[in-house]
Specification:
Radius of gyration: 25 Å
Helix content: 25-40%
Strand order of the largest sheet: 1-2-3-5-4-6-7-8-9
CATH topology: Rossmann fold
Structural class: alpha/beta
CATH architecture: 3-Layer(aba) Sandwich
Amino acid sequence: MSLPHALLTAMAATTFCCAAALAAESPPLPDFEVAGQLVPRDPLPERVIRWGDGSTVMTDVVYSTIPGYRPLHLDLYRASVNTTPRPLVVFVHGGGWWAANQRAASAFLDFPAVLANLAQRGYVVASIEYRLSGEAPFPAQLLDLQEAVRFLRANAARFGIDPAKVALWGISAGAQLAAFDAVTCGTASVGASDCVHGFVGWFGPYDLDAHVRERKSDTSVRALLHCGADACAPAALADASPIHLVDGKDPPVLLIHGTEDIQVLPAQSKAFAERLRAAGVPVDLLLIPGVGHGFVGATPVATRDASRQALSATFDFFDLLFPGASPQQQSITK
């Protein structure tokens, strides 16, 4: 049943009256600037945040814009605004290739503070995001990491980076990606100019075929490789496994794993370390007893102690890899 014409007319008049009165009382609109065409850009781009200790973080730096995908960002940490060239450490987050972000890691409540502390030791630290498995299949994630390293090297003068001193640090799924990039130096897909000089991996899967067999099944791997409901083909698993690409040209490596990890078994780090040693690559393997994935232990104290042990070993590795960045003087050599 429709409303009478007279009632509709009265309602319209009331609405117009009220809108006019509201407009008369409202403050005037500013003269917002507009362009002569559509401008799909972010008006709130990278920002510089200064920490109390003098270090800075430049957040949301766009390093890649691929048509059809969201822009990819990184956060950049420095000890100060001084742009004296410093070694670069690129952090690659975990999350099963489908979750998490560049500001979260392991059990740390404030991981940006951890990265800022590493920067205070004399590094530029970049923490990157990448396309997740729900957005694109592997090797998209690896290509994003490689693009981030190229972007940072291309902008070395702007960011105060020494492009000849670059290391990777990845955790869990991010360790698989970072390891893959570290061991593909000089291959057809990665030129010599894209090589990195060291790699730290925390509780990563480096042989996906063995990882799937150890776990009996792994939906995150199937999602990464877009295998669907079926098991991934052995060839697809092998192609995404950095353990099969190890050779004597690979840079020094530090691997850290909890002995009670049931999400990614410590056998993954053990096997990867053995393969690296057999190829003559300098590698250290630290197994932390009594903790699982993310170095989570039975108590908060156990988790804290294991996390600090892993962090200390990681920072020491970078100090040895790049002597002069911090007070350490000894270097890692083949």
